[in-house]
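Question (not urgent): is this output format expected?
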Amino acid sequence: MSTHDDIHDIRISGGKVVSAFTGEEFAADVLVRGETISGVVPPGTPAAAHTELDATGLLVAPGFVDAHMHIESSFLTPSTFAGITLARGTTTVLADPHEIVNVAGSEAMRWMIEEGRGTAQTQVWGVPSCVPAVQGLEHSGAELSAEDIATMLRWPDVVALGEVMDYRAVVGAEPRMHGIIDVAREEGALLDGHCPNLSGAELSAYMATGVDSDHTKNRTEVVLEKARLGMLMMLQEKCLLPEVIEALLALPQLPPLCLVTDDLAADHIVRAGHLDHIGRVAVRAGLPAPVALRAMTWTPAQRLRLHDRGVVAPGKRADLVLLRGELGDFYPAVVLAGGRIVARDGAAADPVRDPDGADAGASGAATGGTLTGTVRAPVPDADAFRWRVELPDGQHTFRALRTNPRDTYTEATQVELPVRDGEVQWEGRTALVRVRNRYGRDGTVFAPLLGPDLGAGAVATTYAHDSHNLLTVGTSPTAMAAATAQVVRDGGGVAVVRGDGGTSVTARLPLPVGGVMSPAAAEEVAEGARAVRSALEEWGWRHLNPFMSVSTLTLAVSPSLKITDRSLVDVVSRTPVPHTV
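Got this back:
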């Protein structure tokens, strides 16, 4: 006769368990008691349970673990983000909030942690290592010292030093960056990397500091070099090329891999998925489905030192995804987090928030509190987009940024433009980029932009990595002024203006929380993001991820030429460069 203690909370029967260790699918019933898997037993084994969950025709897999991502890139607050990503099977994330921390410092990170703590999703955190991203080359809203970072690394739920993006400073033995890495090592934190195509002696110098992962896009030979040296390769969508997967699978032994999302907007998550989407991309690129599963469960769990998850096994946390179809489809039919059903068929169950956790929404924290009102820049008119220079009349050669439709690299190029009466005559000849400081400073920098075939119009945004100053790209001063004015009035966000008139806003996404997030419901944010994405594409901005392509024009750690509120920046040499050649 069973006692009450013998009764499990949930019995999942009729399905096949997928082993993240062996890649096998085997018939078994999964028992859950509280937050823990209490048994993985042969089908039909006697075991009483309060709830019977029929998994006939489904695969029982571990919940997905995202070891590198930024919640702000979804444009959602942490609790809202948890709701839509749990529904796609992502039960654990390591979030690096370097977007909002560059805006408002350590208090912004404290708010992020608290706002997400009450959700059913496990959110662990990395302290941003580069605030600002490159010291001396841009102005952000905050600055973190090594001492600040050491303090933040001791906070609950903080496990890592966020991606060390200023890899040139590391290789060049710059004291500030090395001091930050040193305190992180003293605190026993994970050290996440960011070093696109770094190789040879410079890669050794970078890794010698203890930084041992990379999620950036690399040439195939550099992927192999980094993996060979024990650097954990974290592959996001743009990294998942067939030639990269083929080269990895051809090695005598496949190295540990993590699949990660890095930056996905709300409309993408709603339409295509989250880490489940990355898994499907990996399989299409040639990665065997069991290998992809391991790269989004066991390996990232081990990376995050969360040894209680990542495999369907007795004693492990009951973070489970019941998958419909073939394994490589990664379609979540049912999602359990901590032993509770939190989603069915891509829709969040009610409630998603942990009943024992704090309800950030009820406290008003979901509005961002003091993180609103952070855009301190004037509403401009068209005159603000006249590019004035101290050059004589005549033709001059200007440095320009050239984008591409695949990734966030910007090539340094040049363009001939006339100057008349101290003003560059750019309209009708090139698109123009303008960066304006949004934190009460006067910094304003212009540069020509080549690459996209843009019609009449403009885009403006405060979501501009990583200092999130006010970025505008356009083909006329009138359109640029209209888009920028809308963003300033919205307290931050994105706005697109299209058409010859250039005064009416075609699409907008207000982001009043730090100028990078919205307190609105996921569906509303996704609708706004979708409208902006569509408007960008119709304007002529063709890219795998238009949001990232626009917002990384200012990312002064991403090769090769970028623009900040202080100057054009040669990323490789880490130096400001003049606007003329």
